[in-house]
Design brief:
Elements lengths: L1 E9 L8 H14 L2 E10 L11 H14 L3 E4 L5 H11 L2 E3 L1 H12 L3 H15 L31 H31 L3 E7 L5 H9 L16 E6 L5 E6 L9 H6 L1 H8 L3 E7 L5 H14 L7 E6 L7 H11 L2 E3 L8 H13 L2 E9 L3 H10 L1 E8 L2 E9 H10 L1
Parallel strand pairs: 1-2, 1-3, 3-4, 5-7, 5-8, 8-9, 9-10
Antiparallel strand pairs: 6-7, 11-13, 12-13
Helix pairs in contact: 1-4, 4-5, 5-6
Bound molecules: guanosine-5'-triphosphate and magnesium ion.
Length: 412
């Protein structure tokens, strides 16, 4: 384990987070990346220094602590320019990593699927490219521990041209994967199942909820970014309507833009969903700020206008009932649940029924019985309200997703 010293620079613009709270999250991130947090410091400054980010005196202090405690890694809770990073390393005499690098590193560790690995590598290269100008960080450092890991642990000793080539290749690969996904989705859309995406801040309990609802066994752990690859499961609602439920990568405050950009393919599950369930950790002191971070990311994905059901999770962990009431009032249409202990999931399911029903319409059709294709489609993908045999035909009144209506009509 790499021993790390964490530095949070408090610039006063807190956006609802105190410096201590930001430092707390950095500690969770560092631990999630496998670091052993040996020391933490909060530096208060009015403005940043363009050359060193913090004052050189403070940097020398950090150097001393690192030497005393034999710490080889310093993680900043902010984004550093290539120059600042290099200058800091010169004074501190230890590897210096910024917040984006740390997050990229966690993603690199978690990437399992081919797609996930490509997306992480792309985000890493997009991060590196502008830093290679002039006195940027040294590429030869890649492949040596936190902040330097690539999904393939490859040593990248190449110049910017080669990196650009690699970036365009990765983008092409992602485009291909995206196309395959689109074809699969088209097949799914034809049989027209509404999709409901479980989204939310990292560690809120999204995977636990998917598991509790569908009996799946997506790994869930008390650490940040357990899930990277999306999981999609079929689920039948009590009104017989089939939906697809998806679980995907979690969001974070100040999630690096390159990462969101690179993960567009994975996040398509969110972008294309008909309804979102946003899981919030109601027992977390920063619950409201988490909502803000999720909403910012949804805006970035242009998915902010989708209907959202708020699931106030981990209510078993909330001691004061008043806190839950306060949150319910804050979010309006929110359901307090415990995904882990399967509490009040029926209420959440009722909400899903309500929201998905709004996306449905009623058709009244007379289908010749020999039109087996249409009969089958209606039986499998609609909620039948009335059915009467009339000679060689069958009269059906059924609830059907809006976008399936014209497909059925075409079949008749
Ligand atoms: N007490 C309590 N813990 C829960 C509940 N739901 C989930 N957890 C715990 O919260 C932690 C995170 O759960 P996950 O389901 O992995 O969370 P996630 O949102 O999928 O997280 P990422 O994939 O990392 O973004 C795990 O340790 C779960 O056991 C709950 O209702 N109550
Ligand atoms: Mg998860």
């Amino acid at each position: 384990m790499e021993k790390a010293l964490l530095v949070t620079v408090d610039l006063g613009n807190k956006r609802g987070w105190t410096a201590e709270e930001m430092a707390r999250e950095l500690k969770d991130l560092a631990t999630s990346s496998g670091a052993l947090v040996a020391h933490e410091t909060i530096v208060r400054r009015d403005k940043i220094s363009p050359s060193h980010f913090i004052g050189t005196g403070k940097a020398e202090e950090i150097c001393e602590i690192c030497q005393d405690m034999q710490i080889s890694l310093v993680i900043f809770n902010n984004d550093l320019t290539g120059t600042q990073q290099k200058n800091l390393e010169e004074i501190i005499q230890a590897k210096t990593v910024d917040r984006t690098q740390l997050i990229l590193d966690i993603f690199a560790r978690r990437a399992r699927s081919n797609e996930g690995k490509i997306q992480v590598e792309l985000a890493q290269l997009l991060y590196l490219l502008p830093r290679l100008a002039g006195k940027g960080i040294f590429l030869s450092r890649l492949g040596g521990g936190i902040g330097t890991r690539g999904p393939g642990e490859q040593k990248i000793e190449v110049d910017r041209r080669r990196i650009r080539e690699r970036i365009s290749k990765l983008k092409k690969d992602l485009g291909r994967i995206s196309k395959q996904r689109l074809t699969r989705k088209k097949q799914r859309k034809n049989i027209s199942i509404l999709t409901v995406a479980i989204i939310g801040y990292t560690n809120a309990g999204k995977s636990t909820l998917l598991n509790s609802l569908t009996g799946s066994s997506v790994p869930s752990e008390n650490r940040l970014f357990s899930t990277l690859d999306p999981t999609i499961r079929a689920y039948t609602l009590p009104n017989n309507q089939k939906i697809m439920l998806s679980d995907t990568v979690g969001f974070l405050d100040r999630l690096p833009h390159n990462l969101v950009e690179s993960f567009k393919a994975t996040l398509e599950e969110v972008i294309d969903a008909d309804v979102l369930i946003e899981v919030l950790d109601a027992s977390h002191p920063k619950c409201i700020q988490h909502r803000k971070a999720v909403s910012d990311t949804l805006k970035e994905l242009k998915a902010e206008d989708k209907p959202i059901i708020y699931a106030l999770n981990k209510m078993d962990n909330v001691e004061n009932q008043r806190d839950i009431e306060r949150l319910v009032n804050e979010f309006g249409d929110a359901v307090p649940i415990s995904a882990l202990y399967k509490k009040s999931l029926d209420k959440l399911i009722d909400k899903i029924v309500l929201y998905t029903s709004k996306l449905m319409t009623v058709i009244k059709v007379t289908v010749p019985q020999h039109n087996t294709k249409a009969v089958k489609l209606i039986h499998e993908h609609t909620h039948i309200l009335k059915k009467e045999y009339r000679g060689q035909s069958v009269y059906i009144e059924a609830q059907i997703p809006f976008h399936l209506k014209h497909i059925v009509e075409k079949m008749l």
